Amino acid sequence: MEVAGKASKLTLTDLKSPQIRTFWITAIAFFMCFFAWFGIVPFMPAVIKDLGLTPQQKYNSIIAAVSGTIFARLLLGKLCDKYGPRLCYTWMLLLGSLPVIGIAFVQNYEQFIFCRILIGFIGASFVITQVHTSLMFAPNCVGTANATSAGWGNLGGGANRLGMPIIAAIVIACGVAEADAWRWSMGIAGVVCFLMGIVYYKFTQDTPEGNFKELKASGKIKTDAQSKKEGSFMTAAKDYRSWILFFVYAGCFGIELTVYGIMDDYLQAQFGLTRGAAGTLVACFALMNIFARTLGGMCGDKFGIKKGLKGRVQFLMVILIIEGLILATFSQITYFPLAIVVLILFSLSVQMAEGATFTVVPFINKKCVGSVSGIVGAGGNAGAVLAGILLKSQNKVAETEAAGISNSFLILGGIIVFAGVSTALIRFTAKDEAKAAAETKKALVGAVPIAA
User: Fold this and answer.
1) Which keywords describe this protein according to UniProt (predicted)?
2) Residue 91: pLDDT band by 50, 70, 90 thresholds?
3) Can you tell me the distance from the alpha carbon of 241 to that of 176, in angstroms, rounded to the nearest whole number?
């Protein structure tokens, strides 16, 4: 889909422009979704005690938390192409808030797992975020915009480690029993997501030119019937590059999700840290999204400006291979100070790889950006599910929990390196390269104003 009026600069203070206003709102919405998606993690000791969960049931809940998101991302990518990101995000926030609130009322393992699967649907917010920013920003800065909105949204996955205990402390101070604090905290997170859905509907638009409905009526973009042959989910699914990027995103975002879910336990088992100290370190890991993912997007854009679309792919390959080697190295370290240094480097590389992935995605097929984004985004969660299964299997055969996690990290490091090498298969036609170069040059000379 060709959209006019895309912003050529990421001027964060220009709130009057629909591009920047949408950027901020979509980043905040994504933050709230991630905050709620992983909001239960800081409370898992209390949940295990309250519901009587076994260690295997705990691992099952980790897998459940990301499995539902796979299908939701595929579905929402397709719906974004059809109805536009504004309506998709609105309804996802409104409906997705219900299981977040509902988990506050669970009484057994089965109800808990069911709610965690449904809560995973709000993880599909990532796809809508990437589609919306792709529609708002020009080729010279689309990677930076995508990476920054996603990175700042991902902060919710770390901020909840600090924010949820604060919310719990507040509700306890208001007279709620400590044993029920996790329930009230999740309920509050769900209500905030619901309210964010209303904000999204009122203050964003699908493209710089307006919403899909009006643009279709005026003939500025093709109707569903007109565009069906040119850009559809099946078009994206038949493009082998979508599935290579699916694998790539499994090797970066999927691994980051896995680390979020298990690193607390690993630091405690391997290095004898307290849960509070381990949780703080993991939160710091997640908070690197403030700049790390943006850095990956910026580097991808820079390589794209200098070397074209193949330059974007080359940078993605390099950063993925680095990520895999660092994770494999981390798995073998037993000296705590060195482990923290390597963990920081891993955090930087994995988040840069995520940002770099979505400097390539918008150029795979512009007629179905949503569907391509949905497939690639689903890859992240598929990777997390498979990594969770690997962790569960290694935990069964290893002598200790720390050994099982360490073995898993070593295996995953090798898989990530292979994913990096596989990007060499991604190719673009001379026509695609020329078109992207022309659009980039036009944006660089300021031909597209930011407040079009």
Assistant:
1) Membrane, Nitrate assimilation, Transmembrane, Transmembrane helix
2) very high
3) 52
Neighbours of 43 (CB within 10 A): 19
Categorize the per-residue pLDDT at 451 as very low, low, confident or very high, splitting at 50, 70 and 90: very low
Burial 428-439 (b: 16+ CB within 10 A, else e): beeebeebbeeb
Torsion sign (Cα): 19, 20, 23, 24: negative
Q: Render 294-331 in DSSP notation, one character per residue.
A: HHHHHHHHHHHHHH-HHHHHHHHHHHHHHHHHHHHHHH
For residue 362 the two structure tokens come to 């918008």
Rounded Cα–Cα distance for residues 257 and 73 (Å): 15
CB of 207 closer than 8 Å to CB of 215? yes
Handedness of CA 388, 394, 396, 401 (dihedral sign): negative
Q: Closest Cα partner for 118 from 97, 104, 91?
A: 97
Task: Return the sign of the alpha-carbon dihedral for residues 191, 195, 196, 198.
Answer: positive
Distance CA 179, CA 114 (A): 21
Q: How far apart are CA 41 and CA 182, in angstroms?
A: 10
Is 18-221+228-443 a domain of CATH 1.20.1250.20? Answer: yes
CA-only gyration radius of the chain, Å: 21
Structure confidence by residue, pLDDT tens digits, 193-226: 999 999 999 999 999 988 988 888 887 776 555 5
**CA-CA distance, 30 to 155, in Å (whole number)?**
9
The amino acid at 240: Y
- Residue ranges of alpha helices (H) inside 219-308 are 224-227, 233-238, 240-250, 253-271, 275-287, 292-307
State the Cα–Cα distance between residues 317 and 420, nearest whole angstrom. 5
Say how far apart CA 240 and CA 236 lie, in whole Å.
8
CB-based contact 357:248 (threshold 8 Å): yes
- Span 67-75, average pLDDT: 87
Q: What mean pLDDT, rounded, does the chain reach?
A: 88
Domain spans of the chain, in order of start: 18-221+228-443
Q: What pLDDT digit, counting tens, does each position of 342-375 carry?
A: 999 999 999 999 999 999 999 998 888 889 999 9
Element spanning 50, H or E: helix 44-51
**Helix runs in 107-211, H state only:** 109-119, 125-136, 142-154, 156-173, 181-203
Q: How far apart are CA 179 and CA 23, in angstroms?
A: 39
Q: pTM of this prediction? A: 0.83
CA distance 309 to 433: 6
Q: How far is CA 451 from the centre of its chain?
A: 27
How does pLDDT run across 388-434, given as a tens digit for each residue? 889 888 877 778 888 889 999 999 999 999 999 999 999 999 998 99
Q: Once rounded to an integer, what is the mean pLDDT over residues 135-144? A: 89
